[in-house]
UniProtKB/TrEMBL annotation:
Protein family according to the UniProt entry: Belongs to the ABC transporter superfamily.
Source organism of the structure: Luteimonas viscosa
Molecular function GO terms recorded: ATP binding; ATP hydrolysis activity
PROSITE patterns xref list: ABC_TRANSPORTER_1, ABC_TRANSPORTER_2
Lineage, opening ranks: Bacteria, Pseudomonadati, Pseudomonadota, Gammaproteobacteria, Lysobacterales
UniProt xrefs under InterPro entries: AAA+_ATPase (IPR003593), ABC_transporter-like_ATP-bd (IPR003439), ABC_transporter-like_CS (IPR017871), P-loop_NTPase (IPR027417)
Name of the featured protein: ABC transporter ATP-binding protein
Key words of the record: ATP-binding, Nucleotide-binding, Transport
Length: 297
């Protein structure tokens, strides 16, 4: 659906935000996972035709199967694209219905009856029908994000890009939002950029882990997790002993449980007494990839 090859971008301050990024993104949900500053937004904005890459290519399969050069044929891409940026501002005094209608006009839906039908359909799809007359300024974070998805879906895009949409949402709103994305992902390609590992675990059949402008791993989460099988160990340790474990073991992560550190260690065999072997998860994969990159630097 979308083929990205050797995409590079260096900002004027010398930061390599995209360092030879290559990815194949199929239909369905694709998770782009990485810490702050990994380069996710730079990649999203480049694909959304809002900023230029220095080199490389990105090719989107058009509706009739013809390839679209994302970096050059921007108008054609924009016709196929829905984008929910990281900072999605709304006009606080306008109702959801009026603003969506306004966006629909900008998208070229000039026939009034058809526009009404589309706007009403989208408000229902994102579960904002009952709130359609309310001013956007009074919306919760989750409602605002669902409105953002409605505007991104105007014009039936084949590719939908959502940049860190669940940051700041409470668990219920997050679930509701992710369920909505999953429904959309059944019809089109959705790139979900996030630093929240569970968003990808719960939702994405394919993914990539990115950091410092580079793709560290791409594929199916289940395959990446299977690679770590029987090699991840857990132990609760004292705060005092933690630095010693970090020096002598491959500690993937440390988490406080009831105020006491619990470490996950990567090892082919039991590191020492008291370690329990656990089923690895995507978080273990993620931290291992970041660690491998640090070691290689
Ligand atoms: N316009 C810019 N000028 C200079 N540096 C930039 C610019 N935009 C981003 N950067 C830098 O490029 C790197 C990648 O940033 P980017 O926003 O793409 O990452 P991200 O993965 O989306 O992170 P975040 O979750 O913090 O937005 C960071 O080091 C950032 O400081």
């Amino acid at each position: 659906m979308l083929a990205i090859r050797d995409l590079c971008k260096t900002y004027a301050n010398g930061v390599h935000a995209l360092d030879h990024v290559s990815l194949d993104i199929p239909r369905g949900m694709f998770g782009l996972l990485g810490p702050n500053g990994a380069g996710k937004s730079s990649l999203m904005r480049t694909l959304a035709t809002l900023q230029e890459a220095d080199s490389g290519s990105a090719t989107l399969e058009g509706a009739d199967g013809t390839p679209i050069d994302v970096l050059r044929d921007k108008d054609a891409v924009r016709r196929q694209l829905g984008y929910l940026p990281q900072d999605f501002g709304v006009y606080p005094k306008v109702s959801a219905e009026d603003l969506l209608e306004h966006f629909a006009v900008l998208k070229g839906l000039t026939a009034r009856a058809q526009r009404r039908e589309v706007v009403d359909g989208l408000l229902k799809q994102v579960n904002l029908w009952d709130a359609r007359k309310r001013k956007l300024g009074g919306f919760s974070g989750g409602m605002r994000q669902r409105f953002g998805i409605a505007q991104a879906l105007l014009g039936n895009p084949r590719l939908v890009i959502v940049d860190e949409p669940t940051a700041g949402l409470d668990p219920e709103e997050r679930n509701r939002f992710l369920n909505l994305l999953a429904d959309i992902g059944e019809q089109v390609a959705v790139i979900l950029s996030t630093h929240i590992v569970e968003d990808v675990t719960d939702l994405c059949p394919t993914m990539a882990i990115m950091n410092r402008g580079r793709v560290l791993l791409t594929g199916r989460p289940a395959d990446a997790i299977a690679e770590l099988r029987e090699q991840v160990w857990r132990k609760q340790v004292s705060k005092e002993a933690l630095p010693g474990y970090e020096a002598s073991h491959t500690v993937l992560s440390t988490r406080l449980v009831g105020g006491q550190p619990v470490i996950h260690v990567f090892s082919g065999q039991r590191p020492e007494e008291g370690f329990e072997r656990i089923d690895p998860d995507l978080e273990d994969v993620y931290f291992r990839q970041l660690r491998l990159q640090r070691q290689a630097a």
